[in-house]
Specification:
The protein is rod-shaped, with a radius of gyration of 67 Å. It is built from 14 helices and 18 strands. The N terminus is likely disordered. It is of the alpha+beta class and 621 residues long. The chain has a 6-stranded mixed sheet with strand order 1-17-18-16-15-13. It has a 5-stranded antiparallel sheet with strand order 3-2-6-5-4, sandwiched between helices. Strands 8-7-11-10-9 form a 5-stranded antiparallel sheet, sandwiched between helices. The chain binds adenosine-5'-triphosphate and magnesium ion.
Length: 621
């Protein structure tokens, strides 16, 4: 009964194509860690992109925000400084304008006095009593209504004739700059002068002429301390008028305070007396050092009782350009500073928000890049690992192929040699039977010739990878092999042969096919050591359905122990064997022979029931 009849229940394995199908599972050992070490040296650890970009970028943003805030602070501060400078200039110009205006008013008054013939007559005659009588009332009304404090009638030789504000003093030569200027230019002159008691007075002097003749000079003085109130009202800045103490006499100053009921202060500063001020209290921080700096042209910003005050000064010079003191501007910039502070805070906050947004966007973008980068890196690692493994497997395959080839050669030589030895032993034993001895010697020679043929082919194979095929009668080939098998291996195991009716001649290498068949017979015999059943060799038509090729199946069926699945999967691997004295090269050689003939080997087996090896060979072309 052909074993293939049970094929439905049998497990089967097909071994075709490359020898590598049966490559033994590789064992790495220490080589694996060495390989990984080499790989790590090729692929460096992926860089932490986020960490290396975000930090410097955040620092850069912080730096930009700081520069931005400082720039805004600087711009705002310079705007404030410019504003204060403009107001300082405005205060100076306003003072000039008011002095000019007051001077013009006074000149109009003086011209009105000069048109009075009676006064002129009294002046010409040097009659002080008449002058008092004619103009005394006018002076008093001017003093009461227009702060006129002084009125002089001065002779052409610049000697005082009559002082309305101090009638007892006369006959002294007056040397004030305004009078000198009016005298030299013979036209009206005016300017600020500091009085002995510390009063700042605007003095206007007009030459008095009649018909080309000089009668003398009329001088009027007006206190100007009230002007700082008017200027404060105009520009909205508190003012402080200070006079350099070097121009003053302390005693006279105090007398003046009492006489004129003034509000000046001597002690507030070491070098300057306070002439007038628009604010009730002076800032605490305004001390001598700060005042001197301001008078030298500097500006300053101070805090005083919760207010921010910006300070600057305008010099006060007299008519002769002598430095008298200064007007200190005290601008309250509390609201402006608060607005300014808030604007900086707002700008910084908005910048921080914007920076946060940019940083966040950048962060997520970098995260994506880093993820892609890591992914890419991982792929590269895997690729390199695969490449390394691939190279290693190739190397193993090369070694394996060499090993297989060496093993095959040994195997192919070993079997006939075993046959030769066995036959020689038989010949020795039956030496007295010349017919039998001759027969045995013939077989020994045949086996030796097989060996020589094989060696010859191997030598040829080492030059050109080819084998010698020729039309071969398959029936003869099978018969020869069975004889060899019985003589060399197992004399008693029955081997049935089932051939087709017609003779089959295939173009094959008879030596190789015989060798393959011999291997299959030996394996079958080894699997049926208990002698149960026999072996069946069959030759029948078969086709390769995948390639749609017709051919012949040379099959060996046994009723031996069969093969478990795991043995069947590895049976074609070179060196795989389950036998203590096996080399594991029998089936790889069969497979190799099949491949050389463009054929294939399949196996079906059932444990405890038997095994069938089928060698498919294509029709001869
Ligand atoms: N007919 C069979 N029945 C059961 N098992 C088999 C049969 N043929 C082969 N095997 C199993 O396949 C293994 C490999 O066989 P192979 O011919 O390649 O090597 P071997 O017979 O062990 O050694 P060698 O043939 O080199 O002396 C065997 O060890 C055996 O386990
Ligand atoms: Mg074997």
């Amino acid at each position: 009964m052909p074993v293939s009849a049970n094929a439905g229940r049998r497990q089967s394995v097909q071994a075709i194509g490359h020898m590598s199908t049966g490559t033994r599972a590789p064992s790495y050992g220490w080589r694996n860690s060495g390989t990984l070490r080499a790989m790590n040296s090729v692929i460096r650890q992926p860089r932490r992109i986020k960490a290396s970009f975000i930090g410097p970028f955040a620092l850069m943003l912080a730096f930009v925000i700081c520069v931005f805030a400082v720039a805004i602070y600087w711009i705002e501060a310079s705007i404030r400084d410019r504003d204060l400078a403009e107001r300082t200039r405005a205060v100076g110009e306003l003072l000039e304008q008011k002095l000019d205006k007051d001077a013009n008013l006074m000149m109009a008054t003086m011209r009105a006095i000069m048109t009075n013939g009676a006064i002129e007559q009294a002046f010409r005659q040097g009659d002080r009593g008449e002058l008092e009588q004619r103009a005394g009332a006018l002076f008093r009304s001017l003093r009461a209504e227009h702060r006129i404090t002084h009125m002089y009638f001065i002779r052409p030789d610049l000697v005082s004739l009559y002082r309305f504000h101090s009638p007892a003093v006369f006959g002294d030569e007056i040397q004030r700059v305004t009078l000198q200027r009016a005298s030299q230019g013979q036209q009206a002159a005016h300017g600020v002068e500091l009085g002995a008691m510390g009063t700042l007075t605007l003095r206007v002097v007009m030459p008095w002429r009649h018909g080309g003749e000089s009668i003398g000079y009329l001088e009027i003085g007006v206190e100007i301390e009230h002007l700082i109130d008017e200027i404060r009202d105009s520009v909205g800045i508190d003012l402080l008028a200070v006079i350099d103490k070097r121009n003053l006499d302390a005693e006279q100053w105090r007398r003046g305070l009492v006489l004129m009921e003034r509000d000046g202060r001597w002690e507030d500063f070491a070098d300057h007396a306070v002439l007038a001020r628009t604010a009730e209290r002076l800032p605490v921080a305004l001390d001598d050092g700060l005042l001197n700096r301001l008078l030298a042209g500097a500006t300053a910003e101070i805090r005083d009782r919760g207010r921010s005050i910006h300070l600057a000064s305008v010099p006060i010079n007299d008519a002769g350009e002598r430095h008298l003191g200064a007007l200190v501007l005290m601008r309250d910039i509390t609201d402006m500073a608060a607005t300014f502070r808030w604007s900086i805070v707002a700008v910084v906050l908005i910048s921080l928000l914007a920076a946060g947004g940019v940083l966040g966007t950048f962060f997520f973008a970098l995260e994506r890049v880093e993820r892609d980068y890591r992914h890419q890196h991982e792929l590269e690692r895997r690729l390199l690992r695969l490449d390394t493994e691939h190279r290693r497997i190739l190397q193993l395959e090369k070694l394996s192929a060499v090993g297989t080839m060496v093993g095959s050669i040994a195997h192919q030589l070993n079997n006939p040699l075993v046959g030769v030895i066995n036959l020689a032993q038989l010949a020795e034993r039956g030496a007295d039977d010349p017919v039998r001895t001759r027969e045995l010697l013939r077989e020994i020679r045949s086996a030796g010739e097989d060996c020589r043929a094989f060696v010859k082919r191997m030598l040829g194979f080492s030059k050109v990878s080819r084998f010698e095929s020729k039309p071969t009668s398959m029936a003869e080939l099978i018969e020869d092999t069975v004889v060899l098998f019985h003589q060399a291996e197992n004399r008693h195991l029955p081997v049935d042969v089932k051939l087709p009716d017609e003779p089959v001649v295939l173009t094959v290498d008879p030596v190789l096919i015989r060798h393959a068949l011999f291997n299959l017979l030996v394996n079958a015999a080894q699997a049926t050591l208990d002698g149960r059943g026999g072996i069946l060799i069959s030759l029948e038509r078969g086709e390769d359905k995948e390639r749609n090729l017709s051919g012949w199946i040379l099959a060996v069926d046994d009723h031996g122990q069969g093969m478990p699945q795991e043995v069947m999967e590895k049976a074609f691997q070179p060196f795989f064997t389950t036998r203590a004295d096996g080399t594991g090269l029998g089936l790889p050689v069969v497979q190799h022979v099949a491949l050389l003939h463009d054929g294939q080997v399949t196996v079906t087996s059932e444990q405890g029931r038997g095994t069938r090896f089928a060698l498919w060979l294509p029709d001869s072309t």
